[in-house]
Write a structure and sequence with these properties.
Layout lengths: L1 H14 L3 H14 L4 H13 L3 H13 L5
């Protein structure tokens, strides 16, 4: 499905060290799927990997609010 395709694209970008691209893909994913805890978890992880702890915490809080385990 579309959410998983975006997830895969974001993870590939992150694995290649393209962290700003990964964050962009994950941000789009949470815009399209705002109720997905998994989408917010991936965004939080990408922010952390890029050194943006503040936005990682915000995304993590949103993940938790959607039933995730932040």
């Amino acid at each position: 499905d579309l959410r998983m395709a975006a997830e895969h694209a974001g993870r590939c970008a992150a694995a290649l060290g393209k962290l700003s691209e990964a964050v962009g893909v994950f941000k789009l994913n949470v815009e399209v799927f705002p109720m997905s805890a998994h989408a917010y978890a991936s965004l939080a992880a990408a922010y952390m990997k890029s050194g943006d702890g503040e936005n990682a915490a915000i995304a993590g809080d949103r993940e938790y609010g959607r039933g995730g385990h932040a």
